[in-house]
Amino acid sequence: MRMEIRGRRIAHCVSIGVAAVLLGGAAGAQPDLSGQTVEWFIPFSETGGSDTWARFNAPYLQRHLPGNPQILIVNEPGGGSTRGANQFAQRRQTDGLAILGTSGSTQFPYLLGDLRVRYDYDDWAPVMIAPTGGAVYVSPELGIRDWRDVAALRDRTLIFASQGPTSLDLVPMLAFKLLGFDVRYVFGYTGRGDGLVAMQRDEVNIDYQTTPSYLRNVAPMVAAGEAVPVMSWGVLDAEGRVQRDPTFPDLPTVEEVHQLIHGAPPQGPLYDAYHVFSTAGFAAQKMVVVPKDTPEEIQQMWRETWQRVFDDPEYQAERQQVLGAYEQVTGEAARKLYEAGTNIAPEVLAHVLQMLADDYSVRLQDPDR
Length: 369
Description:
The protein contains 13 helices and twelve strands. The chain has two domains: 2-22 and 29-131 and 284-346, 3-Layer(aba) Sandwich (D-Maltodextrin-Binding Protein, domain 2); 134-281, D-Maltodextrin-Binding Protein, domain 2 (3-Layer(aba) Sandwich), CATH 3.40.190. The two termini are 38 Å apart. Strands 2-1-3-12-4 form a five-stranded mixed beta sheet, sandwiched between helices. A three-stranded antiparallel beta sheet has the order 8-5-9. α2 (49-64) packs across α10 (296-311) and α9 (269-283) packs across α13. By secondary structure, the chain is of the alpha/beta class. Residues 1-29 form the signal peptide. Keywords: Signal.
């Protein structure tokens, strides 16, 4: 028993010592991470999009964090990212030496009340948000020349290769329903790469790809006349208004397509649902968070570090090629995107859950949180 108590006291002293080092030993002092290792938890496997994103950013964080600590990427896949996020939430490490990178696949189960979720975004604070985008394209066999003919899609039978209605594919499903498209979904695909292959084989006739995949794989198809782009998911400005995606400035947003087809902007619970999930899945897709009770000095250190990363000329030169033409944000801009991408009104959630049950026979229990 005495040994156990002594062990606990030693652990407590170590914890206090780490905090003192990080805070410079005095209230309000600049944190110093010299000789430390920062663990960046990524709840996805290696080589995936989130892992690639983290490994691109890690050297710049090491360069600009005070004390130039080592950055260790810790991959904890499983449960569609819920496993790793649950583990991070249970750790509640507030010394600044652990951060979590989330993605739309982490936000969606939380918003939908998935029973696997044991984390709460209200318990975390964002220190960085990385938006991304995506574009919808169709087969030229549908007789569509460009996006100006998009209204004609309402008279076509569309076939879409899907990973499932609770995946990121919920965004196009909500968009297509909002626009009044007749879409038949083929489930069982394991990723958007499979959807691309299905399009190339003429097994389906409508698809979307995230920006990096679109630029790499779909743009050559468009140039060869093998695909017709029709719309993008857009981005949010500083006031939360939907704007055209800077990577696809000539493509209309879903909101613009709705105006073109229906003569009015979209509104109502279906559009509210689309807006929440498109924000969580794209406009605020990747987030870096720390526990909310992390000392403010450490949170501010992370925000200032990310700003120095964004301002780094080398980062600016390489970012667009790797991440697309999307401004990475911190501070107040990140807070606004965080709130928009992690909150859903009860009536909007109820509408989505009912739609999932009625249209796809998917029933999810909404835990009281």
